Amino acid sequence: MKIPGFLLRHEVTVEPYLGDSAYGPQYGPAASLRCFLDEQTRTVRSKEGQEVISSGTFYARLDAVCPAESRVTLPTGRQTTVIAALRRDGGGLATPDHLEVQLA
Predict the structure, then answer these.
(1) Taxonomically, which superkingdom (predicted)?
(2) What is the pTM of this model?
């Protein structure tokens, strides 16, 4: 079951991280993404397993493309990066399957 559309009240812009180059990080084309944004400070673990501070989390549909280190522009205009994108898939159970994206 997909996360219901009526919960996706916010819109962010995501530039997916493609990798590093000699000139710094490279990003794919910007795409708007409907989501539910929760701007709350909390401690999370990075992909390397280190504890880091997250300034917010957004929840989107599972087909969203938002790898770690992607650049995200919030509705307020503030830019941040993705710490981790976690798949929350119920495996066929009647749960709202979604992608949880933790922001720096």
Answers:
(1) Bacteria
(2) 0.91
